[in-house]
Every structure is written in structure tokens, then in C-alpha cells.
Amino acid sequence: MRVLVTILATVLGFGAAACAHGGGPDRTLDRYGVALKNHDFGAAYDLMSSAFRVKVTRDDYVRTMRDNNREVNETAERLRGKKGSMEVSAEFEYGLGDTMRLVQEDGQWKISSYPLGFYDQSTPKAALRSFIRAYRLERWDVMLRFVPNSYREKMDGKKMQAQFTGPSREQMENLINTLEANVDEPITERGNDARMGYGDRYTVQFLKEDGAWKLKDLD
Q1: Angle between helices 157-165 and 169-181 (to 10 degrees)
Q2: Is the pTM of this model over 0.85?
Q3: Which end of the chain has fewer surrounding CB within 10 Å, N or C?
Q4: Is 62 in a helix, a strand, or coil?
Q5: Which domains does the chain have, with CATH numbers?
């Protein structure tokens, strides 16, 4: 079993402070496993990151653990018998929710994130962020990737540029600014369609075609 310990506080991560206090990530996992085995959920909660504790209260954590006895015991058993290598990683968030992941190799930190995925379309949110990035960099050719097939027949790079830099430039700039400010709004997916409300009255409509999410309508 590969055990991943993320130094950056995550929802289910162990905080760096806890790791340091406990003598390293392996020791922290041991302490957590023992706490679960003994059903000492207060002690287990103390090993959770500060980011986790902000989102989940001690009472909610303890209640959830008590209501899932089988899962707790299984987790404790798997942690007790953990084998294999331990990978210590760090994650840095920047830009429009982009993350850069680093891992330790031979005592040195190395970047392990895939560096070439500038315009991800694997999810509606990723497609929206990629669309905004393409606009900011004036990559009109890339922006065509986010146009549904039925519309793309009528579009090319020059027409895309004219749409965003022509007479309606100010309006389009305001629209993109509003989108960027609301890029983390919840998105509802239904099959190959998705929607995200933003601002006071706007909605982004997404469409999945050929395995990639595209933007059908921005307002």
C-alpha cells in the first residue's frame, strides 16, 4: 500500500506541524492508526490538519467515526499493516486554481506535476479555467477548442479574435472578469451537459463532446 502524506493541509491530510511533532509522517500515521483502533477519536482528530479542523468540528468528526465502526476498524488495520514506500509530497496552488505538485527524491524536492496540460478540458471547471487562460494570452486558435462542433463550422481564429476584440471588446472583457471572479462557483453536471450560475443573473452552459468539455453559452 502506498501511503501519501501531503504536506499542504488538505481535507483529509495530516498537518506538517503534527508530522514534525510526532517524529515524521510515518510516526503520525502510526499514532493515527492506534487512535482509531482504540476508538480514541479525540486523539485522532488532534492529528488532523488545521484546514480540516476548520471545515469539520471535533463533535462532527467523532460522531461520524462512531457511526462507521466497520470502516474505522478496517482503516486502523490497514494502517497497522502498511507496507511499501512512503511518498512525501507538497502541493502549491496558484493562478486560476492550478496546482503544482512536488515530491521528495533522494532528499531533494522535485516537481512531479504534468507540465504540459495548459488547456485541460477534462471537467467543466477545468475547461472554464482553460478558456479564461486562452483569452488572457490571446490564444484565439486555442479558444476554438472550447467551441461546440455545431458552432465551430462558422468560426476560425480571426472571427474569434474579432468577437472578443471588436466593437464589443469592453463588454467581453467585463464578462471574462466576472467569470474569473466566479470561477469556483458550483457546477451542476447532467450527462454531457453542465451549468454554472454566476453574477446576479448569468449562467455558463457546458457541453461535452468527443470526451472534452466545451462552453456552449457564457451568459
Answers
A1: 90
A2: no
A3: N
A4: helix
A5: 3-111 (no CATH), 124-217 (3.10.450)
Pick from 26, 25, 30, 24: nearest CA to 43: 30
Residue 73: which of 41, 25, 27, 28 has the closest Cα? 41
pLDDT digits (tens, 9 = 90+) for 86-134: 777 888 887 776 778 888 877 788 888 776 678 999 999 999 999 999 9
- CB 155, CB 147: distance < 8 Å: yes
The position carrying cell 533522494 is 106
- Residue 124: all three cell numbers together: 467543466
**38 close to 72: Cβ distance less than 8 angstroms:** no
CB 35 within 8 A of CB 43: yes
Residues 178, 160: Cα–Cα separation, whole Å: 20
DSSP state of 146: G
